[in-house]
Specification:
123 residues; alpha+beta; 3-stranded antiparallel sheet; 4 helices; 15% strand
């Protein structure tokens, strides 16, 4: 829990779905573009890998939150995803939850950064 990487991974996992929904609320997108949009929206705080994006998309498809279809561009295939009305509702619901927690989160962050580090105890 003392590692920055630990907290970065935890944040990535917890907010990735919200930012995927946010990106899809702007319009249909393929997986690579979704990852780039999430990274850009979070100022690179969240940099979802394919290993994070595609299972999340599969979960959203299975839940009826997004629809995906395959597009052929030359020799390449891309899975393009679109938000469904149920996905729009999930996005709006998630936004209301984030609004409720953000002030407390900001207060805790401000407090942590304003408090001097505790001295290290030596045996």
């Amino acid at each position: 829990m003392e590692s920055q990487g630990y907290w970065d991974l935890l944040i990535n996992r917890s907010v990735c779905r919200f930012f995927l929904l946010a990106a899809l609320a702007e319009g249909s997108k393929h997986g690579y573009q979704l990852a780039k949009d999430v990274e850009e929206a979070t100022n690179a705080c969240c940099t979802p890998s394919a290993a994070m994006i595609y299972p999340a998309l599969r979960e959203m498809v299975d839940g009826g939150y997004i629809l995906c279809h395959v597009e052929h561009t030359g020799a390449r295939e891309r899975k393009v995803c679109t938000l469904t009305p149920k996905g729009r509702l999930a996005y709006e619901t998630a936004a209301r939850s984030w609004v409720r927690i953000m002030p407390a989160l900001q207060q805790a962050v401000d407090s942590a950064l304003a408090t001097p580090a505790l001295p290290t105890l030596t045996p």
